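dumping this here so i dont lose it again. seq + smiles for pyridoxal-5'-phosphate
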Amino acid sequence: MSKVRFYNGDDIPLEFHRARIVQKVRLLPVDERLQALEKAGYNTYRLDSRDVFLDMLTDSGTNAMSDLQLASMMRADDAYAGSESFRRLEDAVHDVLGKKYVVPAHQGRAAENVIMRALLRQGDIVPMNYHFGSTVNHITLNGGKVVELVSPEAFESASDNPFKGNVDTVRLEECINRYGAEKIPFIRMEASTNLIGGQPFSLSNYYQVRRIADKYGIRILLDATLLGENAYLVKQREAGYGDMELKEILRIFCDLADLVYFSARKLTCARGALICTDDFQDKLKLDQVVSVFEGYVTYGGMSMKEIEAIAQGLYEATDEDYISQSPSFIKYFVEHAVEMGIPMVTPPGVLGAHIDAKLFCDHLPVQAYPANSVVAGLYICSGVRGMEGGTASEYSPSDPGHIADMELVRLAFPRRVFTLSQTMFTLDRLKWLYDNRRLLGPMAYDDIPGMVRGFRTPLKPLTDWPSRLVAKFREDFGDSL
Ligand SMILES: Cc1ncc(COP(=O)(O)O)c(C=O)c1O
């Protein structure tokens, strides 16, 4: 994207695609936005999509597909077993990821269920750079324990460390010596660590992890859900890789791993997941679990149309114009937000622009859910739906006092979905909210027994701050939507 220089010197992310199918969105007037939010219990997951102007909740299942992906879906071979579509998927996995065997599942967490049931035993330890929610769930449900090994700097939002997703290799070796290699079925490396702001790990760190894994005879499990972007940031930021093609860097990542899995809702398609390996014994174990939970081993809970779209999407994931679109928009957004004084996670990561809600609302304690306040405030002033990522979404009844490592608001940039003017609108409204941040007030959960907190439970504002925010919006914007 940065290949094109503007005459006026501006650093503008230029799109290398054209939109040919579009979806209409509407921006409700501010009073109706407040009503919609009240109806949703101030939890943006509960908003109806028709009431959302720009849906920046997630990139999961919301990336734009290509003309060739849609075309490929038309040639799906719906055979229950031995489908031509599955053969094409195997070829794509072999060509792009370099792995021999493919085990499909219906989405990323289903793949995690399969992996943990097949390869993890009661009492096992899984060292990793950082957790993702569904991964921890499946490890602990199967009797294992997670040990996280990113360095403390990963939790400092403002940083110039280009690889905050790196593993602390000294602590990795200490962990192996403490628990014993036989207790460790694999070291999990998550590309572009989602929950700490989409931060990548470097290839030099990964080579060190591989050396340690080899020394102790431990497998590496690569969560490749955000691998394209991690590889792109290696090309951008790590010495020695600038001239390499993205597909070569992707291959290095996969070659260094024993097992590669990913949610195809982020990488390649809008549905599905794959587990890829060269080890026939592991493949057999995975197949057994897939047959019980997902479906036959050549479709794993997906339709053949989705399998075709994943196969085509894998080839497209080697295209730098495609992979760099979302990170370039995020970089543009984060750099402008930082210039405006807004506390963002830096360096800009992938998947979304991340706001440090603790700093944004330094007048609110973590127990008052500042990230939920910022998300609610942003929806009120813009109709943009963001996502809280912190203490509320990590809540568990077994550890009610748990405080997350970071309180983030994520504004996701699904690939090729938003325009630059929509990005600038979001920045503009975020700046207004930041200037009026003292109006943001405390929130509390209105718990419903048995309901998962972050994703489903309604909240309530503890003061009338939302109405005061609307009044200030009217004062500043008049009758503007
Ligand atoms: C890094 C990572 N791993 C696993 C998953 C789980 O994938 P899914 O949502 O398809 O179940 C996600 C989903 O966002 C993810 O970001």
